[in-house]
# Entry
Amino acid sequence: MKITVIGAGHVGATTAHLLVQKALAEDVVLVDVLEGIPQGKALDMYESTPVEGADVRVVGSNGYEETAGSDIVILTAGVARKPGMSRDDLMTTNRGIVKECTERAVAASPKSILIVVANPLDVMTYVAMKTSGFDRHRVFGMAGVLDASRFRSFIAMELNVSVEDVNAFVLGGHGDSMVPLVRYSTVAGIPITELMSKEAVERLVKRTRDGGIEIVNFLKTGSAYYAPAASTIQMVDAIVKNKHRILPCAALLQGEYGVKDTVVGVPVKLGRKGIEEFIQIKLNDDEKAALHKSAAGVRSNIEKLGL
# Structure
């Protein structure tokens, strides 16, 4: 496997480092427009491989020649959020960045799978798909894994239990309208509604929706990167190892859940070829309405960009 990470900022560099640590590829290429940054970080990572025991070739570049023939391309490039900004505030700026990066990456690696991490995640995934011309099974975004991980973390903190025993699903757009599925959220198979009050559940749902901005407000000059990188790696691991894992990802729906031509988070089966199957779970009327509302918000932003 050859994997390219576009964007050598916090998310991109952390993702590349985890790829190296876990030896998920024989070749990792880190690309950024800033001269010296990807080269320096890549060299630093490569110098860690003897300690990690990972035979991974790591290269940094300002161009795309080194990325040729990549099996997976991870798009993290873009402007990060600052306090007071919503993910949608980044839309116009990051559209241009994602479009250019996609064009250059696809020209070098026409058979690759694209994983989008740039915000606003759902719209940028749509931009990458339209720009690449790839089938929807080969272009999808990292969002649901991160949102579910945050929800799981907050549940574990609330109940003082191991995170390993907590399972949760979050659907919809990666933003304020995301849909944490409380009915499908459990601790060791026990529904969380049996373990905490309705008020506690609602508080954790709200905290999950605000999970990104909570970290932005702490950092002041940047946004989250450890959890986003780890979430991306879980998706890559499922693809590289052909695990057929069911994970929530931002994907283009064409009729599933009653949503068409819009990217939103839904459970999918991930394997060597990307999305192998769209999993349609039964939603009650409230959940379905919330998902459609979330999808409408994404659709509105897509239309604002004239896509």
The longest helix spans residues 285-304. The first strand starts at residue 2 and ends at 6. DSSP finds ten helices and twelve strands in the chain. Residues 144-304 form a domain with the L-2-Hydroxyisocaproate Dehydrogenase; Chain A, domain 2 fold (CATH 3.90.110.10).
